[in-house]
Amino acid sequence: MNKSRYKRVCHLVRELNKRRRVQEKKIDILCNDMVSAHGEFIARLKPLVFGVSFYESILGCNDLSSLLDAAGKMIGSAVDKSNVAVFLLDGDGFQLHITDGDRPIQIDAASLENCFSTQVVRTISRGGRVFRLEEMFEMGLEGDPEDFNKISAAGIPLNRFGRVYGFVLIYRVVGNELNADELAKVAAITPGLCNAIGTVAPSINPANAAH
User: What is the C-alpha separation between 91 and 18, in angstroms, rounded?
Assistant: First the structure.
């Protein structure tokens, strides 16, 4: 092979290698984009799957106790290793429902109830967002610091179209902070839970958000 032909062959080989590397980079980028899109799709799908499962779990509940028990268990499954309590406004006071189950923290129900005044329950219930523990203390929450120093907690209001029923309290060990995605997942099912409460417990008289 003469030098001129040899150089042409080498040039062609280099060009082919260059194009192959460019093509490989494009394939890598495409694959990464597909994996990323797939991950985002799965992330968006999870709350929808939880919502469907939640509504299925409360379909057969014909009384308030069974409804709140089923709702609490489903919420507990969505927020891993958590305790769930539901505060419902009732006349001039409120009712407290704590879901039974194997949980890592247990605060005595009576002690928990005494930490929340009716005014604090009303304030949280009428809110348009999730409230963290420190915000609840600013509203007037009282309690044994030894208990509350152990937990990460949040209150998710139960109100819909101006009808205020109460709120869901979720809490777990302080080293395992409640994150925004978990709380958003629970907040997404509260409208349906409000409707269910209104259906099975018409005696519960929801407060008006404006008062």
Answer: 77
